[in-house]
Structure formats: structure tokens, C-alpha cells
Amino acid sequence: MPTRIATTAFDPEKEIAAFRGARTDVGALATFVGYCRDATRGAEVHILELEHYPEFTEAEIARLASEAKARHVLLDLLVVHRVGVLHPGEPIVLVSALAAHRAPAFAAVGELMDYLKTDAPFWKRENGPDGARWIEPTAEDRARRARLQD
Amino acid sequence: MTLTLLFFGKLRDAAACSTMQLDASETFATVDALIGWLSHRDATLGEALATPGARVAVDKQFADRTTSLSGAREVAFMAPLSGG
Predict the structure, then answer these.
(1) Can you tell me the ipTM of this complex?
(2) How far is residue A129's CA from residue B13's CA, in Å, rounded to a whole number?
(3) Among B9, B60, B78, whose Cβ lies nearest the Cβ of A55?
(4) How crowded is residue A74: how many other Cβ atoms within 10 Å of its Cβ?
(5) What is the rounded distance in angstroms from the CA atom of residue A88 to the CA atom of residue A93?
(6) What are the two backbone dihedrals, phi and then psi, of residue A115, each rounded to the nearest 5 degrees?
């Protein structure tokens, strides 16, 4: 169940192709890719800095993925998450699930993203024309996370 | 034995550093005692550490204010987590 932090740009298409490989037991592959945008609520973004806590962050990502895999009938689950300096248009995160059937694949990807948004130890700082500001989970992120608590 | 403090996200701004080394002369029974000591030295940092959603880890395990610091080597103060 591969999970990793990437310190340089990754190619989502190549990751997904390598992940599925030549498996013939896969009936469904569902993927989410999150990208660095060029603006947040009208404020321009020039670069996004993503910080993590080495070893701790990797362990938490692995734990969140492992728990997602235990909740759904999956063949495998992949998480790749960037750290460092990103520019608009670059992928930040990829979550991909392989399953025999589509329902668990869709569910696991969406659910794991909801967990990553509030429970993954990363810290983001957007840099724009007016300086830098720290990014925190939105009310939407928190609401989605709260719905997972049961 | 030194205790290393790490600050992540906006807590790093409040601490004005990403890492702080405390020597063996400073010992704390719990995370709460350490936070109290930090707040006493710097009220602004103390306020920042109380930010809703801020998290603490001791030796790379999530902790809370009641967690013992006996034998601890590293305490990380984390601003609200924001991945994805």
C-alpha cells in the first residue's frame, strides 16, 4: 500500500499507470489529483510552500491510508503528497484506489481526501503579491471531516 | 538530556524560530507544564499555542496537555493541520 512524500514534481499519469501496472483483477480505479491554484478567493497565488514533519507526517499518511483500506473492499491504495515549493498548475496530492468494484474505489478516495484535509500533518503558506499567509482547513473541510466521525 | 522543541506552521512565526533546544536544567512533568513555562516567557507565544486546532506531538506521537514529558526528547507544536 504505497504512500510517499515527494520533494519534487510528480506526474500523476505515470504514478497511476505504475500503480495499476498489468493487474487483471482490477475492475475499478478511482483517482483524485489536487493542484496548486493561481488564486484563492480572489487573492493571487505565486507560490505555495508546503511544510511537513519528517517521519511523523509519513507515518500519519500511512496510518490514514491503512485505515481507509480497512474500511473499504480495496485491492490497493496509493497516496503521493508533495512538499516544498509549488507553482500554480503543479499537482500537490494524488490519491488512487484499486478495487474489484467502483463503489468502494469512489468512496475510499473521497473519504481519504476528507481526512487528509484536516488530519494530515502539513502546513501550507501561500505567497502572493501582498505577502505570505498560512492556509488552514476551510469550514467546508471541517464539515466534511465532522461527517466522518461515527 | 536536551529537550528539542519544534514549531510548525504559523506557530513558527509566533515562536520566531522553528527549533528551540532546552538544556537538561529545564525539566517539565507534562506538556501543560512546558506550555506554561513558554507562555510565562512569551505571552504571545502562549496565546498562539492555545489556537483552536493546534496539536502537540511528543517523540513523534500525538499528545495532549496531560501527556508526560518524562524521558521525552522532542516536542512538536503544530498549527492546525492542513493537508491535501
Answers:
(1) 0.94
(2) 20
(3) B60
(4) 22
(5) 13
(6) -70, -45
Q: Which three cell numbers stand for residue A74?
A: 480495496
SS3 readout for chain A: CCEEEECCCCCHHHHHHHHHCCCCCCCEEEEEEEECCCEECCEECCEEEEEECCCHHHHHHHHHHHHHHHHCCCCEEEEEEECEEECCCCEEEEEEEEECCHHHHHHHHHHHHHHHHHHCCEEEEEEECCEEEEECCCHHHHHHHHHCCC
Distance from the Cα of A114 to chain B's closest Cα (Å) equals 8
Whether the predicted pLDDT of A150 surpasses 70 = no
Work out the pLDDT band at A110, boundaries 50, 70, 90.
very high
Q: How many CB atoms lie within 10 A of CB A138?
A: 14
Q: What percent of chain A has pLDDT over 70?
A: 99
Query: Coil, strand, or helix at residue B15?
Result: helix
CA-nearest residue of chain A to B80?
Answer: A136
Cβ(A65)–Cβ(A97) below 8 Å: no
The per-residue pLDDT for range B16-31, each reduced to its tens digit, is 999 999 987 788 999 9
For position B36, what pLDDT does the model report?
A: 96
Contact with chain B for residue A118, Cβ under 8 A: yes
Q: pTM of the prediction?
A: 0.93
| pLDDT value, residue A109 | 98
pLDDT at A115 over 90: yes
Check whether B1 has a pLDDT greater than 80: no
- Tell me which chain B residues have a C-beta less than 8 angstroms from the C-beta of A119: 81, 83
Answer whether A92 touches B (CB < 8 Å): yes
